[in-house]
Amino acid sequence: MHLTHSDSSLHYQAIDYRNSGNERNYGDRREVVGYWAIVACQQADLDQNDEFYLTNEDKKTLLAEARNSIKSLFGHDVNEIDLSRCSAAVYSHCGAFVTLHKHGQLRGCIGMIESENPLIHTIRQMAVSAAIHDYRFPPVAEHELEQIEIEISVLSPLKKIDDISQIVLGKHGIYLRKGSASGVFLPQVADETGWNLEQFLGHCARDKAGIGWDGWRQSDIYIFSAVVFSESEFRN
User: Fold this and answer.
1) Per-residue pLDDT at 15
2) Are residues 169 and 141 in the same domain?
3) Which range of residues forms the domain containing residue 178?
4) Are residues 54 and 94 in the same domain?
5) What was the pLDDT predicted at 1?
6) Which of 12, 111, 126, 235 is buried most deeply by CB count within 10 Å?
7) Residue 55: pLDDT band by 50, 70, 90 thresholds?
């Protein structure tokens, strides 16, 4: 670690910890020699053609980190989460959104289209922002915590398109940019609303970017896909 600490392309993943107190023949745990097994891994950056994959352990860990980040806003003690069973994907540099629902209704959603930070750090930041910085809603109150359902969307890199026929509703999210104005819809918005393609574009242009219903026609249009998962998937 001393030799590689200045290399920002690496991350460190703990594999295991043992000390001499684990062996009954070598004294008690008050006087031990400890050893960590740690591996240095190359950061995973996504390419437009990459198929991004998260294991179930990755998903559960990211959801737990998001919830812990929100609970910490209220001074709750939270247990440190073991990252050793996660894949390198949780350290990828990619965009992500955290969406909060309460009784099936949107309660907050904040994200980043792209990020220079490891995914797990982005999720922590976006969870806090979704809880207290979404201007459409009052900040989440402590008594709401048990009623909040967390959903995470991990985004692929943006791909600029010239023809809206390249947009597949339900698969692609859209990012519109016109001058300094921009707006984004996640892929699941089309399924949740039942909009057709022009409605999808029109609502994004008017309601998100603030450039009018037909503003998308003069905008740069980008598409992306997402790995979407929520806490409800992992309840027994």
Assistant:
1) 43
2) no
3) 159-236
4) yes
5) 59
6) 126
7) very high
The predicted pLDDT at position 216 comes to 98
3-state SS track over the chain: CCCCCCCCCEEEEEEEEEEHHHCHHHCCCCCCCEEEEEEEEECCECCCCCCCCCCHHHHHHHHHHHHHHHHHCCCCCCCCCCCCCCCHHHHCECCEEEEEEECCEEEEEEEECCCCCEHHHHHHHHHHHHHHCCCCCCCCCHHHHHHEEEEEEEECCCEEECCHHHCCCCCCEEEEEECCEEEEECCHHHHHHCCCHHHHHHHHHHHHHCCCCCHHHHCEEEEECEEEEEHHHHCC
Same domain, 51 and 152: yes
Q: Tell whether 38 and 88 lie within a shared domain.
A: no
Weakest mean pLDDT among 13-22, 67-76, 102-111 = 13-22
